[in-house]
Amino acid sequence: MEKTVLIFDDEHIQNNVLKKNLSDLLTGYQFEAYSTASEIDYALENRFCTLVILNIRMDKSGINGIEIINKIFELNPIAHVLLMSPDKEIYDGVLATALKTGKIIDIITKEPETSDTAKFLQPIIVKYYLRLSEDISILNTSLLQNYSDAKNETDPNKKGLLFERFICLFFGFLGYRDIQKRKIDLSRNELDLSIRNETIDPFLNKFGKYILIECKNQPGYHIGKNDFIIFNTKLKNSNGLSELGIIATTGGFAKTTYLEAMRESGNSNKVLFLSNVEFLRLIQSDNKIEEFKKIIDEQHSTP
C-alpha cells in the first residue's frame, strides 16, 4: 500500500516540524511538506499521494482552502483529506459540500504545539491506511472509474486529459511519486509524461532514471509501427536516462504491428505497450507491481 502523505500549511516552520514528528512516529510512511502557493500548485500537479493533511486557513499564502480541496478531488480522486482548523466550528458550514463527498476523513482543531498535533494525528492516519489495506476494492473501484471515464469520453481534448490523469493515478499507486507532465526530453521531442524512476523495486529500478510515457487516446486512433519507431528514437536520444518507455492507449494494438515493433526494439531500451487488455489486468490485480513486471517480461520474451 502506497503511503505518501502531503502536508499543506502556510506556517513553514510548523509545517516542517509536523513532517519530522510524523515521520518519527510513523516509519514506512512518506511525508512531504509544502507551504507556499507555488509549492502547493506544484505538488498537486506532480506529486502522487493517498492522503493530504490540510490547514483549511492559510492567510499567509493567500490560498483559499476550499479551492485546494476541490483541486485535490479533481486531480487525484483517490486521495482523501484530513483537515486542520484553528476554529473548527467556523468551517463546518463552509465545508458542507466537501463533507458530502465522504473524502474528508476528519476535521481536527489545529494545536499550536506541533508535537501534540502529530501524536493526535497518528492514530487517525493509521486507521485510514488500515481501512485501505483491508479493502483494496476501494482503490480498484476508483481506478476503474477513472479509466472508464477516459475510455468512454467522446470529446478528443477531454479524452486525452482524462487518460493522462488516469495514467498519473495508476503509476502513483504503483509507488512512483514524481510524475511530470508535458516535459521535453533531451532530443527536444515533446512527451506526455516523464516519471522519475525512484522505486525501490530492483527489477524496475534498473531501467534508468526516468520512465517515458506516450499517451494515445484519440477517438478511432490505431497505434502503428511508426508510433513505435518515433518513440523508440526518443528513448535512444535520452542518453541512457531512460531505458523503459510506455505507449499507452485505451484501445488495442494490431498483432502484426506489435510483433514488428518488438523485433526492432533494442536490447538496452524496452518499449512497453499498455492497451485496454493490460490496463484491465493491472486494475483488477491484487498485486499491481508484480502484474506490471509480469507484463514487461511477457512482452519482451516475444520472439
UniProtKB/TrEMBL annotation:
Q: What PROSITE patterns does the record tag this protein with?
A: RESPONSE_REGULATORY
* TM stretches of this protein: none
GO terms classed as biological process? phosphorelay signal transduction system
Q: Which InterPro entries match?
A: CheY-like_superfamily, Sig_transdc_resp-reg_receiver
UniProt superkingdom: Bacteria
Using the record's annotation, list all stretches that form the Response regulatory domain: 4-125
The name on file for this protein is: Response regulator receiver domain-containing protein
